[in-house]
Amino acid sequence: MKALLVAVLLVFGVATTAAQQAPLPKGPGAGVRELNERLLEVATKADSSLEDYQIGPEDLIEISVFEVQELNRTVRVSAAGEISLPLVGLVKAAGLSPLELERVLTELLRRTYIKDPQVTVFLKEFKSDPVSVVGSVKMPGLYHIQTRKSLVQVLAMAQGLSEGASRHPGRSVVITRKPRRATAPATAGEGSSGGAAAAAPEESKAEIVEVPLKELLSSGDPKYNVPIYPGDVVKVVPAGTVYVAGSVVRP
Questions:
Q1: Which residues of the chain fall short of a pLDDT of 50?
Q2: What residues contact residue 6 under an 8 Å CB cut-off, 6+ apart?
Q3: C-alpha span between 47 and 98 (Å, rounded)
Q4: How far apart are CA 212 and CA 220, in angstroms?
Q5: Which end of the chain is more exposed for a tag (fewer CB within 10 A), N or C?
Q6: Positive or negative CA dihedral for 229, 99, 181, 82?
Q7: Could you tell me if 137 and 151 are in contact, meaning their C-beta atoms sit under 8 angstroms apart?
Q8: Mind spelling out the 3-state secondary structure of the chain?
Q9: In degrees to the nearest 10, what's the CA dihedral of 48, 50, 53, 55?
Q10: Which residue, among 51, 240, 40, has the nearest Cα to 158 in the 3D structure?
Q11: In Å, what is the CA distance from 151 to each residue of 49, 175, 236?
């Protein structure tokens, strides 16, 4: 009997040790946490050249010219993308970064009585269309981006993928681009001095791009990390839901 008791205790001890050494099963959010870690890693390595802001209509910019106080002013970009300044008149600002606008204004002022102008452009307020980030992300909402960013950067701005049990991400991210207006090319004979009137802008159709989430974060292929522009809608498609009812432990 004593030998039998010792054998039982030995078996129990081995089983307890094995249980202690066995790895704990991953929770349902562990896989998403790994994806988020990978997302942040990719986002920090993103090309910084994508972050140069391009001025857009309704943006408010502050212009300073060193030692020429009368030229310092704060102006709002018109709907046509232009600003008006003394000595130089109308200047196309939309589509330029603040640094590029500085160079343009410097060159224009150099052609006037200012010998060596030193221009500084500061963006005080931007009104460009925000990006909508929806679906299975931690912080869905509207995000103002500095012109073009990559898909991974925008997902990182939304704090990554949702780790909640009821909002796990599915297999893909869907980007919807709003229709963009493009001016039709002028034909021969058109112009302000005569001929037919300028053609009306053509409106393109909305574009939908679907990116597989796993390839985006794991493949390293830049073709999946597509650029995101102001006005785009980024949706992380939620995982499908399965309902289990009846005589189960956790219906």
A1: 4-28, 48-51, 181-201
A2: none
A3: 19
A4: 12
A5: N
A6: positive
A7: no
A8: CHHHHHHHHHHHHHHHHHHHHCCCCCCCCHHHHHHHHHHHHHHHCCCHHHHCCCCCCCCEEEEEECCCHHHCEEEECCCCCEEEECCCEEEECCCCCHHHHHHHHHHHHHCCCCCCCCEEEEEEECCCCCEEEEECECCCEEECCCCCEEHHHHHHHCCCECCCCCCCEEEEEEEEECCCEECCCCCCCCCCCCCCCCCCCEECCCEEEEEEHHHHHHCCCCCCCCEECCCCEEEEEECCCCCCCCCCCCC
A9: 160
A10: 40
A11: 14, 9, 11
Identity of the residue numbered 238: P
User: From the CA atom positions of the chain, what is the Rg in Å?
Assistant: 29
Give me 206's structure tokens: 């909305």
Q: What's the residue count for the chain? A: 251
The tokens for 207 are 């574009």
Q: Across the chain, which distance is largest between two alpha carbons, in Å?
A: 116
- Residue for token digits 């974060």? 217
Cβ(226)–Cβ(172) under 8 Å?
no
CB 236 within 8 A of CB 139: no
- The token pair at 19 is 């249980």
